[in-house]
């Protein structure tokens, strides 16, 4: 019971048409709804209403990120816990948000707005529930990832934000990078049984580093790189491998400069998995195992 | 809370040396303990004491299969539930089983012995917890899967066994095959958030069809096939793709005729995932999507 | 100098529309010309006019197969050699065949019609010659192989047909299967520096077993299998690996029952490569390394 | 007839033990001979005596590169052609070079020493000629490429060196990069029917940029990257894709700073293939399609 997985990311874009063209034609998401100032997207294997909302705003930025909880009752229990920690929680009623029912919203210690939701509108995946083909129809446009995977946010006080996620929301630590004084520079946290659902790395409060889509294997990573280059998309790093999480990855920028990732691999931690610890001098290969380098662009650019 | 994942499979072999040679040199597991009549094995990425026990016995067969629960308290709650269903539960004390503490044992409606355990001896994976390499050392012998994935057992009454797993043990149905009268011929069940942890298919009570190791991708599937053929192992089916679960797979027989599988792929069901239903006339491609055939050897041979 | 590579295969089909739909939508070839009774196809990376001609005829069958020679002068030299061997050679003038200039035609000892051509119409590949993208545009329909690779024909007297290809046409033997008396059951021959351009296996004179398209890797083989199954195409064998040639492969049937193959892998023989010899008792794994079986359907069905 | 393919590369190393350890344990070559000051290596699928010679010398550098010719008579014809061009040719007699018979040596216009040889000692590959396994034995150490593929040398006058390779030695141009004045900055040349056997890029005369080993696919490229990182080898660029040649690649440095490449992919040019032309402003993506960048380290470091 409790928090289940990353549900959707809501971001602002100054050019909704351009962003929409990119997320449909290059990333290969499908549009599930449009309102006056926003477009909603999902991946082909996702069953919920959306996993990405783009909203027009003159300034690029993160509106919020939303995690789904496992049971309806979890909302009440988590509301109590978050308020006890000292965060003000707002209940957003059914009808106020497109594609979902009641949710909780609050500001986490590092300043981002987080949402918890259980009641999401089901629209179904592309394959259906009756003797479905095990692969999507050939010829889906773009990268066409099956689903949203995780995100990475910044925090000035990584340990404090980590405590909030762990002690209040029940996340579990899978990996951490410590500086020479034993302070956390970065943490990787999971609730879904995958290697991470959210990561927090030292940086300005309120900032988002990237969100990531799942790909099924290394060959899909190459296909993604081919599609990105074919479309003139700027690749930030990769195809490469992470030391942290073991995953294979590409980082790249959407047309408005927001960093996206495609990710595959990782491992399957038990809830009582003993976390992995990286020393700061190994952070280079923790970040990019092949390059063994702390890329300044990677570490300093964010949304 | 509750059942977490498949922990270990305990089988009997009339030739412990031959079986041990196969599971180490061809499958690529490592031996973690030996007793007078048994050998214990684990995969390179597993942290627990073992995921396979081979015990000498003149007749090949399944001793039991064991699932790990998430918390120590789960044992008591599940004991109550299983006894309330009408199964007799035996508590196996710490010290009676190699590599683990107290456990529950009981016979499920289809006649196999099932075990539940929380307290397992941690021996650690091959990579460690301090700035570990994200890949195992090059040159591991054999197929070297990272971990055990799932198993398939037979039941004369699939629906009855399914009810036990779902109502008593809290498993969730991800896929089912129905005959023309709407009776379940096969069911796929999960607790771990993966596409299945155990499957139950119509067949003789007490029988096991196979257990499966996880591989990371389709290329590892080919590598496995190359290693199997190189060692003269009889392949039952594959490399191919399942319709049910979407996974890529090879089935093959160990030297004593016990069926093994290597498996990759699948999807990521939420706990409230609406199950997929296959009609009987689609079972052929549900089983083997490329061949579209109900192989008699596959359906009738078991342990 | 001399014979260069397989250029095109010309076959008959009783349903030109159905065959055309399959070769464009499932195989993913493009149509380059149509006449009253024939359709011409090429792969996306081929620069010549066509590599497949389908001609309407009430009865399925092979019209001819065509090899390109390296230089214009090769035609005269090869005409002399073929006639000296005792085959009657017909010169087909420019204008008589769509998409190519003058060619030679003759019946080989096993009864099939073979053509040699140098002057082929160039239509260019999909990428062009000016700073081209290294990958085709995303979203090509079907399997979309880059090019034709090789073919396999039958012969009642394999050794005699082999002598013709080797002594008269300059092909080189890369692999052979010998029966217990040392007679050739099958031979694999190359001119292009790849593992084979044509193979000859014991069977009825005049018959064709299959032609094959090149795929770039094992992942493309899976993608091909997914597309075939998605379209309900009957797979004959595979995805699997050959012992002979080492290639990865799938065999399957077009809608009129003509066998196609997709193939990748192999090695790179020098012109003086010492041929590999398979004994008859190893032919099973020579054919299909994973299955280790002489499939009767594979050995007895042909066009 | 004529030049066939790259046969071996002979380089100098100040630390023969360290270099030998790297080329056997990390690259995964096998040692076929040792003399007082040199070690000879081959890949597992190569049948000739060696494809790499390392010779002790206080200063790292290229001794020579050697191409095999198709027939014994080619040596005389090519000697005449090279001398007519104005290069002095030395005949090296059988017995003077380890692992091969008579050869020709001469300095090409860009200053490197080139060798031509036909008579090479055959030692056979790892699989043999009798019903061989189609895959090498599992567990070969290191990257274990099947064979040497191509090399890249520098020339102050690319066009002049290109003319020598094309007009005198019969190489064919597959791709070229032109500056704004139409001068060649880089050329890719083939004799073997593959996309390139040698490339020449603007840079100091006498210098070598890298030589490359063939890998079978993108998954082998990742495996190579994993092995390189595991061994702490410095990667120069990749895993990535070339625009020129379309290949997938990693560049990296041996322990003495000599650049190696692993390469897969490409296409299959006919002898009369019309060359592809890249404009200088597209050179970035011609070099590295994903990064779209002219890496200074890549362009300026050489041996």
Short synopsis of the structure:
Chain A is built from six helices and 17 strands. Chain A has a nine-stranded mixed beta sheet.
Task: Outline the secondary-structure elements.
The structure is a homotetramer of 303-residue chains.
Chain A lengths: L2 E11 L2 H11 L3 E5 L3 E5 L9 E5 L4 E9 L2 H14 L4 E3 L10 E5 L5 E5 L29 E9 L2 H11 L3 E7 L5 E7 L7 E5 L5 E7 L3 H13 L4 E7 L6 E6 L5 E6 L11 E4 L3 H5 L8 H5 L3
Feature tags:
2,3-Dihydroxybiphenyl 1,2-Dioxygenase, domain 1, nine-stranded mixed sheet, 17 strands, 303 residues, 35% strand, 2 domains, 6 helices, eight-stranded mixed sheet, alpha/beta, homotetramer
* Helix vs. strand class of chain A: alpha/beta
Question: What gyration radius of chain A follows from the Cα positions, in whole Å?
Answer: 18 Å
The helicity of chain A comes to 10-25%
Output the helix-strand order of chain A.
EHEEEEHEEEEHEEEEHEEEEHH
Interface with most residues: A-B, 45 and 45 residues
Quick one: overall form of chain A?
globular
Distance between the termini of chain A: 32 Å
CATH-wise, what's the superfamily of the largest domain in chain A? 2,3-Dihydroxybiphenyl 1,2-Dioxygenase, domain 1
Strand tally of chain A is 17
CATH 2nd-level architecture of the largest domain in chain A: Roll
The CATH topology assignment of the largest domain in chain A is 2,3-Dihydroxybiphenyl 1,2-Dioxygenase, domain 1
Strand order in the sheet with the most strands of chain A:
14-15-16-13-9-12-11-10-17
* Strand content bin of chain A: 25-35%
Instruction: Give the count of helical stretches of chain A.
Output: 6
Low-confidence region ranges of chain A:
none
């Amino acid at each position: 019971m409790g928090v289940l997985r990353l549900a959707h990311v809501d971001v602002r874009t100054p050019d909704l048409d351009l962003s929409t063209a990119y997320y449909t034609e290059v990333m290969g998401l499908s549009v599930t709804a449009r309102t006056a100032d926003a477009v909603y997207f999902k991946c082909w294997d996702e069953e919920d209403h959306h996993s990405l909302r783009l909203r027009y705003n003159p300034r690029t930025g993160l509106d919020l990120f939303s995690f789904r909880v496992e049971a309806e009752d979890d909302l009440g229990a988590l509301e109590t816990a978050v308020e006890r920690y000292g965060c003000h929680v707002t209940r957003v009623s059914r009808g106020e948000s497109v594609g979902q029912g009641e949710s909780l919203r609050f500001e986490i210690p590092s300043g981002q707005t987080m949402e918890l939701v259980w009641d999401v509108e089901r629209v179904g995946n592309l394959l259906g529930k009756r003797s479905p083909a095990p692969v999507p129809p050939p010829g889906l446009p773009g990268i066409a990832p099956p689903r949203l995977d995780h995100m990475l946010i910044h925090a000035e006080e990584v340990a404090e934000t980590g405590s909030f996620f762990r002690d209040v929301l029940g996340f579990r630590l899978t990996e951490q990078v410590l500086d020479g004084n034993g302070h956390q520079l970065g943490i990787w946290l999971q609730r879904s049984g995958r290697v991470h659902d959210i990561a927090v790395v030292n940086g300005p409060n309120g900032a988002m580093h990237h969100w990531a889509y799942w790909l099924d294997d290394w060959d899909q990573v190459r296909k993604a790189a081919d599609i990105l280059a074919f479309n003139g998309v700027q690749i930030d790093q990769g195809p490469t491998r992470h030391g942290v999480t073991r995953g294979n990855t590409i980082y790249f920028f959407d047309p408005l400069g927001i960093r996206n990732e495609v990710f595959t691999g990782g491992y399957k931690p038990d809830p009582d998995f003993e976390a992995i610890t990286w020393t700061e001098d190994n952070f280079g290969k923790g970040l990019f195992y092949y390059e063994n380098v702390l890329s300044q662009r990677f570490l300093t650019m964010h949304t």
